[in-house]
Amino acid sequence: xPAGGEAHAAEALPxxxxxRAQDPVPPAFTTAMPVPPVLRPLSSTGDVDVxxxxxxxxxxxxxxxxxxxxxxYDGHFPGPVIQARSGxxxxxxxxxxxxxxxxxxxxxxxxxxxxxxxxxxxxxxGTSRTYVYTNxxxxxxxxxxxxxxxxxxxxxxxxxxGTYLLTDELEQSxxxxxxxxxxPVTIRDARFDEQGQLAYTxxxxxxxxxxxxxxxxxxxxxxxxxxxxxxxxxxxLRLFALGLSDGTPLTxxxxxxxxxxRPVAVPALVLSPGERADVVIDFSRHPVGTRLVLTNSGxxxxxxxxxxxxxxxxxxxxxxxxxxxxxxxxPPATALPKAAVTRHIALSMDEDGRPDPRGFINGRxxxxxRIDTTVAFGSSEIWNVTNTNRRIAHNFHLHLVQFRxxxxxxLPAGPTEAGLKDTVRVAPGETVKLxxxxxxxxxxxxxxxxxxxxxAMGMMATFRVR
Length: 466
Ligand code: C2O
Ligand code: CU
Prior knowledge:
With 466 residues, the protein is mainly β. Helices cover 4% and strands 41% of the residues. It has helices at 152-157, 169-173, 302-305, 452-456, and strands spanning 43-45, 48-60, 68-73, 81-85, 89-96, 104-107, 128-133, 140-146, 161-167, 182-190, 209-212, 215-216, 219-224, 226-233, 240-244, 250-255, 258-266, 269-271, 276-282, 291-296, 307-316, 341-349, 359-361, 373-375, 380-387, 394-398, 404-408, 411-412, 423-426, 431-437, 443-448, 460-465. The radius of gyration is 21 Å and the shape is globular. The two termini are 40 Å apart. Bound molecules: CU-O-CU linkage and copper (II) ion. Copper (II) ion (CU) binds next to loops.
């Protein structure tokens, strides 16, 4: 991925993208980016918060003046935000009001099997399912999404995603931007037909409309101070490489499994599907009136997918927040529990241009009746994950655990991947070396490519902790 991307002058108003008369997608920066609502618990007693959500069809005004059919958690596109605290339980009762089975996976969470949202553990139309989250893990920016086997890709594409922000004492004690200055931003791509409806086909290369919190390349008005953004790539296939149009690096403070040990300056922040990054942007460096674009130099034509969102600095503000030099401590790679087993995982898919490509892990299609990998409860293992395709990018997600990325391509992993991770990108031909400890729960869980079109094609497998 080329670093940097297009460096516009901070003040320059970028030209509108290619806009045809019948194109329902408006020019960039014509809509405001909303902030998804924080759900209020139905009840909050003792140490448990109870939520009730209905999974249902709805319409969303994604494109100005157009009602687009979407699938939603309680009518929100993208989904709402659940705020949770380590050690405090959350119960979410989901009612399935669709005409097809669903399952809800809390991505990045360590939960016992009945509540994990396994692809086969679906609940039927007209029924409800209560998920119990014990939140026995440190703070992390998690998300939830549908996982019904073979339907996960389309369900997520049509809107079944939500944000789950788990916090803890440590995170709360830091002077980072909070409240209205801590903004979840779900980024994804989409393709609209001429009626402004979401078009879905597997492996579609023409999803060239970038949505930030459900709006096409919107603007977001900010005060001249620091903001924390919880970035989530909820695309099925698209890899983003995010930067700022004034050329200043993004300050990344967190990744999938919570804060990094220390902030890191990143000129082009790469996020593959399912990955999260917490960044802080300090708008006080810019006078009121400045417009700063969050750019994407990832794959795709820059005139189509090169812009994600524009920050408009509209007012001054006090800023009591700061970014500590040390955010948390994690055991260094050399001090991790000794690994008893080393495994090799090969991700691949048909690359011969057949109309229905299949996805494989170690040469096998997903079979829910097969246990592919058995690990001992409490043990640590090294997983070497290789993308054996020559042209197709993949990534790798394990349920249940947060792991450490030890190496990428034989070299120590970079600082953006030095924290706790649950999803890691794997470029064509590349191998990543992971350290995983299985000490949370016993049971059967899946691992898969999080380019969901690929997992739906079979690039998924089951591991058993026993
Ligand atoms: Cu976010 Cu098995 O997925
Ligand atoms: Cu893949």
